[in-house]
Amino acid sequence: MIIEGAKRLEQVQEYYFSRKLAEVRALNAAGKKIINLGIGDPDMAPSEETISALVRTSMSEGVHGYQPYNSIPALRQAISHWYKRTYGVEVNPEEEVLPLMGSKEGIFHVSMAFLNPGDKVLVPNPGYPAYAATARLVGAEPVFYTLSEQNGWLPDANELQELLKDGDVKLMWINYPHMPTGAEATADALSGLIELARTHRFLLANDNPYSLVLPNDKPLSLLSLPNALECCLEFNSLSKSHNMAGWRVGMILGHKEYLQCVLRVKSNLDSGMFLPVQQAAIQALQNFDGWHAERNAVYAQRREKVYELLDLLQCSYEQNTVGLFVWGKVPEAITDVEAFLDEILYEAGVFLTPGKIFGTQGERYLRISLCSAEAQLEEAIKRIKSHVTATAALSL
């Protein structure tokens, strides 16, 4: 006898990378030696001081028990100082900062805390699939707003006004610097969204984990803008900016009443973050500017190799975008982008991400991660060049 899963699971699919990386593992098991350029999983280590803090604390007595649901005060204080130093934003560490075990869990917590069945949620297209998935899991309705290359991957004000006219939107997700495109939002664009949120009485949530990775200018926080605390939340994470993806350290910042709602969900789902991880995070948040600059210099060199790879595939792309990825537009001659990339996976042994997994606006695009060493990127270029040459020869 098999017990059926919950009806809510009919609204979501297994996460794309969960399925695709299983496929890649199977190819590797068969001896294919796939080069994975698909996922944003930093391959460089955290700072030495961060690792030392983890080891040192782990060897101390009395550190292996449960921890406060909202973390130790020192971590909230470190996050507050980091936001002041990095973004020029002052937040009260006792009331306006809530550490998370990865910002991905916080996306679900916010959905649980604020959305009722039938509420509408504005979700970017293209955008991170978790925004729509979590809305569906709690019975809300994701409503996709269009981001386009022509508009700099920013929301269209006229479209948003149309989507908001019925007054049933409770939450809007934004993600700047944007994943997957790497586009940045201007302060004026974000200020306009804040005013929309105030006028139409919805919560505006910015997912902001990429702002320290190859920034073009001073990193921008939504909370640095006037009136933001009234209607906004911001997520951040150490995963990308501090090479700590597997450590699961994130944060949500905003008005104390909003964070209390989130904490009511969170405190029923976990038992606090491991203390040595918290102490290591405190240390990581003190990384000096030179450490970040060294990391970004490595990513900048890798990005040049990715440009070379995209040129081989005759893709167009914006240069000097922000974050761990390069977003490329596939030539019109390629009618099925996903099939094209599967061919590269199986024939050249290189995994690239199809843009369609981020929404219909990504169907003509692909995404390449910068989280592989230069030697791996050079090998990927070599393999793809061989594949392109062989394919061209067969078409003669």
What does this structure look like?
The chain has a seven-stranded mixed beta sheet, with helices on both faces. A four-stranded antiparallel beta sheet has the order 9-10-13-12. It is globular. The relative contact order is 0.16. It folds into two domains: about 5-45 and about 290-390, Aspartate Aminotransferase, domain 1 (Alpha-Beta Complex); about 65-285, Type I PLP-dependent aspartate aminotransferase-like (Major domain) (Aspartate Aminotransferase, domain 2, 3-Layer(aba) Sandwich), CATH 3.40.640. α4 (about 105-115) packs parallel to α5 (about 130-135). β9 (about 315) and β10 (about 325-330) form a beta hairpin. It starts with 15 loop residues before the first helix and ends with a helix. The protein contains 13 helices and 13 strands. The longest helix is centred in the C-terminal third of the chain and has 24 residues, at about 290-310. By secondary structure, the protein is an alpha/beta fold. The model has no long low-confidence stretch (mean pLDDT about 95). The protein is about 40% helix and about 15% strand.
Number of strands: 13
- Give the full name of the CATH homologous superfamily of the largest domain: Type I PLP-dependent aspartate aminotransferase-like (Major domain)
Helical element count?
13
Mean pLDDT: 93
User: Which stretches of 5+ consecutive residues score pLDDT under 50?
Assistant: none
The CATH level-2 architecture of the largest domain is identified as 3-Layer(aba) Sandwich
* Oligomeric state of this protein: single chain
